[in-house]
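Protocol step 4 of 6: structure prediction from sequence.
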Amino acid sequence: MPSRVPAKTSSPCAADVAATLQALATPSRLRILARLQKGPCAATELADAVGTEQPACSHQPRLLRNLGLVTGERRGRSVIHALYPNHVAELLEQALYHAEHLRLGLHDTPA
């Protein structure tokens, strides 16, 4: 089965991947992305999902937007956030699967 991952680990590509993975290294951002997997929502709903007050959570979606992981659409006084492309949800699911796999002590056999 051919890999869907490009073989480009050049400096610019590696830096972009590292920035994305660094963004995913924060539990609050993972909770935001997990909430957005269920569908678009306003910042107040994201704050509830993260378990913090809205002002403390407000900069997280902006960072995720700057990395191309989420979108933000202004509707009146609110910004509605959504996962950007479908593969962001897949990336999150794979990361969660991997963490659960390790937590359970499971090991894959080589293909």
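Step 5 (inspection) to follow. The chain has a mean pLDDT of 84.
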